[in-house]
Design goal:
With about 290 residues, the protein is α+β, with helices and mostly antiparallel strands. It has six helices and 17 strands. Strand 1 and strand 2 form a beta hairpin. The mean pLDDT is about 95.
Length: about 290
């Protein structure tokens, strides 16, 4: 059996080269504040992979995506082991665009902090009098640059995103920047409306896009998981305060409250985090999570 080694390892995912495709494995690692924690979050990788699969299917009429299969039987024999079953996705190879496409439908987090200072989020002026966690009149697109591991992503304006893309793809910067902005807003609106009908508010999220061999813009990476998005329960939603969430916020809050944590979580925090991820998956897909 041929052995495979990841050629790219992120904080949470490993990427393997499979000739004309890639195999992306979501591990059970969890990161917060740009650090990988010492705990594993059981089944997290499988939940994220299957949630991405659900959204890729749901939105393929809006924009094509890179997913080929999540069935390890379609992958080389090496991936037909228990550790890869359920948390691996075979994907088309894309030339990734160097922009993180962030869309915000509600005001929270760093956006709320910025708005309190000067009434703007990432340079976009918002109406006066918004409260924390308020729904914005329209979703806003706030792109950022993709940082190398260990660096922070940097928020940029739409015009700066045109410049970044123009440098990478001369003659195409404006076209690609407009396309990914429009896709980002369209995807967010469709998915946020659907999620709301299932009892989940998607406050914000990020997408990544690439180009296929014909130069078409294709959605890549992961999609609308608790790792790339802020999910809030609709029940009990109340502007004017922070909201409980289905994502890593529980982990972040614990780390902040325990500064000498050495990036090691107590078991109860791990268990609660897994339960939150599962609950989000089951609410959104309408089916129980199985590995």
């Amino acid at each position: 059996m041929q052995e495979y080694k990841p050629f790219k390892e992120g904080k949470v995912r490993e990427v393997y080269d499979n000739g004309d495709s890639l195999i992306i494995v979501a591990t059970d690692r969890i990161s917060a504040f740009d650090n990988i924690l010492k705990n594993k979050i059981t089944d997290k990788g499988a939940i994220l992979t299957q949630m991405s699969e659900f959204w890729f299917e749901f939105t393929k009429d809006v924009v094509p995506n890179h997913m080929l299969s999540v069935d390890v039987k379609d992958m080389p024999e090496f991936f037909q082991q228990e550790q890869f079953d359920g948390n691996s996705m075979m994907c088309k190879k894309l030339t990734m665009l160097p922009i993180e496409c962030i869309v915000r439908g509600y005001i929270t987090g760093s956006g709320w902090a910025s708005y309190q200072k000067n009434g703007t989020v990432c340079g976009i002026r918002l109406p006066e009098g918004l409260a924390e966690s308020d729904k914005l009149p329209e979703p806003i697109y706030t792109p950022s640059t993709k940082a190398e591991l260990g660096d922070h992503d940097e928020n940029i304006s739409f015009d700066q995103s045109v410049d970044v893309l123009e440098r990478a793809f001369p003659g195409k910067g404006k076209e690609y920047a407009e396309k990914i902005r429009d896709y980002t807003i369209a995807l967010y609106k469709k998915c946020a409306d659907y999620a709301l009908s299932k009892g989940i508010i998607i406050a914000d999220t990020k997408f990544e896009f690439g180009l296929d061999e014909n130069g078409n813009v294709v959605l890549g990476d992961e999609m609308l998981t608790p790792d790339s998005s802020r999910f809030w329960p609709l029940e009990g939603y109340k502007p004017g305060q922070g909201q409980p969430s289905f994502d890593k916020q529980y982990v972040r809050d614990w780390l902040k409250a325990n500064p000498d944590n050495d990036y090691l979580l107590p078991e109860e925090v791990v268990a609660k985090t897994v339960a939150k991820y599962k609950e989000a998956y089951e609410l959104l897909t309408g089916k129980p999570f199985t590995r």
